[in-house]
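User: Hi! I'm working on a homework problem where we have to compare a predicted structure to a textbook description. Could you give me the structure for the chain below?
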Amino acid sequence: MTRKKVKLAFITNDSARKATFKKRKKGLMKKVSELSTLCGIESCAIVYSPYEAQPDVWPDARGAQRVLSQFKRLPEMEQSKKMVTQESLLRQRISKAAEQHKKVGKDNREKEITHLMYQCLAGKGLQGLGLPELNDMGWLIDQNLKEICKRIEGLKKAAPPPEEQRSQQQWFTDWMENPSDNQLQMGGPFGHGGGAAGGDEMLLPFNDGNNHAAAMWSNVFFQN
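Assistant: Happy to help. Predicted structure tokens:
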């Protein structure tokens, strides 16, 4: 079961306010103790209230006095550097909430204009749209076009040169379909003479007796 969010406002009921004070004070002292133990730091807490004659001090009066003395020895600028009052804390929260509200409003507006753009692409006209909607839609279209151009440029840079896109299998298929254009090239790594004109031997077309001068392989190769 989730806990109900507490409204940060003054509790007008006296008994409820006193009960809340005792509960919160106990939790505060516990948190200070845990912070000091887990992180090994010097800390103290002093709580005054109208419900008790003496203030509550953690860890004790001597420990609190030691921490306060260390604090007072700091320069004045250092003492107030990280101080937070109730007013400043509320201002920080209001500023943060305003930024979040602005961001959510911007996201919602972008989604709304995107939906209108898709409706227009589906055949719905621009009738009924005001100037703000048209301006926002124009801005959104420009942003989408910039993103598309950016991706196209990235794909162009990542793509290999056209001559490298040809696979070895395709090369072999072309070679077999046009053997007469490649016979002289066989004198290199495949021939016996080390080249078409520089060796003692060349690989010549094999004639199988059927006037197939373009055949590249011996009949022995095809016999079982």
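For your comparison, note the following. Strands lie at 45-47, 56-58. Residues 86-121 form the longest helix (36 residues). Good luck with the assignment!
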